[in-house]
Amino acid sequence: MAKSLVIVESPAKAKTIGKYLGSDYLVEASIGHIMDLPKNDIGVELKKRTFEPTLIVSPGKEKVVDRLKKLAAKADAVYLAPDPDREGEAIAAHLSMQLLPVVKDKKKVRRVTFNEITQKAVRAAFEHARDVDENLVDAQQTRRVLDRLVGYQISPLLWDKVRRGLSAGRVQTVALRLIVEREQEINDFKPVEYWTIDADLLAAGKQGFTARFVGVNGIPSRVANGVDADGKEQFLSNALPDREAVDEVVGELHTAKWAVKSVEKKERRNNPKAPFTTSKLQQEAAGRLGFNVRRTMGVAQRLYEGVELGPEGTVGLITYMRTDSTRVSPDAIAEAREYIGKLGAGYLPTKPNEFAGKKQAQAQDAHEAIRPTSVRFTPDSIRRYLSDEQYRLYKLIWQRFVASQMTPAVFDQTTVEIEAKAKLTYDFRVSGSVLKFDGHLKFEEEEKRARQAAKEKAAKEERLAQVNVTQDAEGEDDSERRLPELLSGEALKLEKLDPQQKFTQPPPRYNEASLVKTLEEKGIGRPSTYASIINTIQDRDYVKKITGRFVPTEIGIVVTKLLVKNFPYIFDTQYTATLEVELDAVEDGQERWTDLLTGFYDHFEKELKVAEKHMEDIKRMEHKTDEVCEQCGSPLILKWGKFGSFFSCSNFTKSKPMNVAAGPWKKNAKSVVKKITDAFTFPMTVKAMTEDVTEFSREVKDAKELTEAINQAQGKGKKVVVETFSCDFTKENYASKPDLNAPGADDVAEEEFCDNCGRVMVLRNGPWGPFMACPGYNEDPPCKTIRKLNQKVQQKPPVQLEEACPKCGKPLLLRQGQYGEFTSCSGYPKCKYIKQDLLDVKCPKCGGDIAARKTKRGDVFYGCVNYPKCDFASNQKLINETCPKCDSAYLLEVAHDKGTFWVCPNNHDALPKRRKKKGAPEAEEAVSATPPCSYQKQVAQPEGEAA
User: Fold this and answer.
1) Is the peptide bond between 829 and the residue preceding it cis, with omega within 30 degrees of 0?
2) Which residue of 32, 689, 886, 887 lies most exposed, with the fewest beta carbons within 10 A?
3) Cβ pair 901, 894 in contact under 8 A
4) Dihedral sign from CA coordinates of 751, 754, 757, 761
5) Rg of the chain, C-alpha, whole Å
6) Looking at 71-183, which runs of residues are DSSP E strands?
7) Cα–Cα distance between 577 and 525 in angstroms, integer?
8) What is the distance, to the nearest Å, from the Cα of residue 201 to the centroid of all Cα atoms in its chain?
9) How far apart are CA 853 and CA 843, in angstroms?
10) pLDDT tens, 112-121?
11) Which among 283, 355, 290 is positioned nearest to 520, based on CA atoms?
């Protein structure tokens, strides 16, 4: 009997859904997209302006497509069940495109969507199967075409003008622009001085408190703080401008009479927040859990697709995590209210809470807020089945959803106005609030009390152990400090005045949470794109993370300035946001996708033609500077190289030395001199060379000295050459690069997290070098996420060592290379000396030095420095010890589970067996000239055992 075929994106999702549907359904995974635009061509029709994309089966997906075709041909019906968003709809359309020609009944290829992977939701989705939504497909296809037009037509410009391998993105460039412009704001920021005055006051028989100066004679005190973006003046409240003003006020306050002017008490209500949208989840997970966006979405993906919960089986724990809606289904609200009712009558509002959000009137089930699929799966009840990161993120989502349907928290807030009367009346104010009813803050308050109890317990244990404990005043919550009961007109006593000088701070650099918030506020991108935007600008080395905040690299700044200058319309933040609104209109069927692309391409084509003619050629940039060469004193020129800008001596030349043959010189010396002076400028150097040895050298300043020097050089070497003076001095332009020696820049690199399952990725070695891979690569079902490791363009500055080069005497430098640190001569490229990690053992073949080396995969071996003349190499470290049994000049260090041993190289039984190469013929056993030896000596116990 034929089964129905169900196709989803991921194997994990297929495994969960397969358990719900039963034996009549065969669930398979497409493993993401199966079709895309070709890589070697733009793949979009532009001549007739139809913008039709040329779609091909994605490279590497041919076997997947063939398998799905075979299964579809035998199936009774085909259900397309990728994720419920634009991208998922596009995958469904591509699957339909490939499978329709082979299925028996074209009407039985249907689309199903579900917002949560639970048995009820999945079965309901199959009862309401539909056709593929062409509007959603058009919206996704339009986005893909827009990105292809920008990327494939601007990137070649960057290759030509800046550096090969660079690329531009329609949305990513705008996000990068925000980071670069923020950096410019920070660099241009001028701090403003201001002062605050705090007064420690005491009422008779009551606890003390601190009030802040706010004004004089009822007029607020403030300090001018420039203008905002609209030109409106800005002020700093409750502040004085300088020390002189502060001294005048403080002098008056010491003699003033202090009293309570008024006491105002009121109840303040704090309303619950809406359940999570994608961007809010990313921001909250970053702030409270320290998760980056990639990690948040990866962990959420695994929670959505399903987790094994013991007797419950595999359960999808949260609803779909890519959404911009706050709407929640009535069933979920009813379940939440039932749970809240058990917490106490005061926590349950009389009717469900509703939240305003984007497009709520048009919201569909696919756009429901992120919430637990069932409130009964409390975080603590299923903790043993979850990884630490899954538990923490699920707890955040579960608590936010339940709290969203609870009553407001209630605070008693007291504001006390104080006056200090002297010649003038100086106004002070203090506020305090106390939690009266926790309401929706119940979970937060419980956790806060648990942390406080743990802290007090730890402090008690330390006191019992007679350890001094310092009270952390910063740990106190100011909002929880109670004010003493004060009465209007009550006299107060001044204990102390605390004037403090302060300066305004520049706006902070973006971190992942604040960047997501800004992108959302400005309407740039959509929830499903934020992770890829942030990943892309980091992968392209346009930004670097230092202490968790984005700092633009030099190449990021250069690319941004070029693109914004030459494409002011396309990379405008407002226009990018407008395009997102138009894509929403395409999704809703209100605008044709070709009309959107036509309007975009009209602007883009004009800007592209102007940029091709007028974009600055950074590659060939040469700017004069005030810097002076440290070798010859000539001016330095700012140039552009592979790793960014650098200073080069203006006396550097690429002209090759000119040979002076004896025959032409004897025949017509004047002609030869003219040829040399036409090619070179003075000063010049005349040399007589025998191979690489200089036998004669003289610097000349004019034609007469040149003639004399060539005559002197004749016969002193095998050849005579003339070369113009060239200074090869260069130095990095560190001022234009992030300070990699700043605090936090040397922190351990952030862990990489799998995009699909959120687990920490591990470093593996492959045929083409190291790469990051998901630890679930070989699991069932597998998670084959990998990330290539690219060479970073921003390197740490070289550090000069006290040690001198043994070849030329110049200082050695500790440099950063592709494979880590290495030490080389500062005279490079003239002196190519590289310090090697030498062993104190001589090569047994040629007597040369033995050095530690690395293979392409990063494995360490030991080889002769005279390679390729000498091919001696060993996988084991050589030890400078003579074998006591056979007099071998060295021993080998071998480590395994039984410990570390020194083994004679002739003890073949104790040495690791070398694996025969694939396809190599069986070799006859060679007769060794050295008799076998059995010597070995244990020098260390197995790791972890005591010696």
Assistant:
1) yes
2) 887
3) yes
4) negative
5) 37
6) 78-80, 109-111
7) 7
8) 49
9) 14
10) 998 888 888 8
11) 283
- Check: CB of residue 68 under 8 Å from CB of residue 99: yes
The confidence score (pLDDT) of residue 237 equals: 94
Burial status of residue 459 (CB atoms within 10 A of its CB: 0-12, 13-18, 19 or more): middle
Using a pLDDT cut of 70, give the percent of the chain over it: 88
**What is the structure's pLDDT at 459?**
67
State the pLDDT at residue 943.
Answer: 67
921-947 per-residue burial string, b: 16 or more CB within 10 A, e: under 16: eeeeeeeeeeeebebbeeeeeeeeeee
| % of residues, the chain, pLDDT over 90 | 52
DSSP letters for 866-929: TTTT---EESSEEES---TTT--S-EEEEEETTEEEEE-TT-TTTSPPPPPPTTPPPPPPP--S
Cβ burial of 319 (10 Å; 0-12, 13-18, 19+) is buried
Task: Out of 194, 320, 391, 510, pick the active-site residue.
Answer: 320
Phi-psi sector, 217: left (phi>0), alpha (psi -120 to 50), beta: left
Is 672 within 8 Å of 659 (Cβ atoms)? no
Spatial CB neighbours of 166, under 8 Å, sequence gap ≥ 6:
155, 158, 159, 540, 555, 559
- DSSP letter for each residue of 682-733: SSEEEEEEETTEEEEEEEESSHHHHHHHHHHHTTSSSEEEEEE-----EEE-
Strands 491-503, 193-203: pairing is antiparallel
Which among 472, 511, 640, 401 is positioned nearest to 178, based on CA atoms?
A: 511
Please state, rounded to an integer, the average pLDDT across all residues of the chain: 86
Closest residue by Cα to residue 556 from 177, 156, 171: 177
Phi, psi of 442, deg, nearest 5: -55, -45
- Nearest by Cα to 295 from 287, 304, 286: 286
**Tokens read off for 268:** 């303040």
Contact 162, 562 (CB under 8 A): yes
The angle formed by the CA atoms of residues 577, 583 and 589, to the nearest 5 degrees, is 145
Residue 320: active-site member: yes
> Could you read off the pLDDT of 28-85 as tens digits, one per residue?
999 889 999 998 889 999 999 999 999 999 988 899 999 999 999 999 999 999 998 8
Q: Give the residues across from 210 on adjacent strands.
A: 200
3-state SS track over 619-664? CCCEEEEEEECCCCCCEEEEEEECCEEEEEECCCCCCCCEEECHHH
Query: Whole-angstrom Cα distance, residue 638 to residue 636?
Result: 7
Spell out where 54-182 has E strands: 56-57, 78-80, 109-111
Highest mean pLDDT out of 780-784, 852-856, 909-913: 909-913
Single out the residue of 402, 437, 448, 449 nearest to residue 270, CA to CA.
437
DSSP at 447: H
Residue with tokens 């090569």: 843
pLDDT in tens, 569-624: 999 999 999 999 999 999 999 999 999 999 999 999 999 999 999 999 998 888 88
| Ramachandran quadrant class, 516 (left: phi over 0; alpha: psi -120 to 50; beta: rest) | alpha
Q: Please confirm whether the linkage preceding 868 is cis (ω < 30° from 0).
A: yes
Cβ proximity of 736 and 549 under 8 Å: no
Pairing of strands 78-80, 109-111: parallel
End-to-end alpha-carbon separation of the chain, Å?
Answer: 67
362 — pLDDT class (breaks 50, 70, 90): very low
d(CA 833, CA 851): 14
Confidence bin at 363 (pLDDT 50/70/90): very low
The residue type found at 709 is A
**Taking a C-beta distance cutoff of 8 angstroms, is the pair 317, 394 a contact?**
yes
Cis bond before residue 912 (omega within 30° of 0): no
| CB contact at 8 A, 573 and 522 | yes
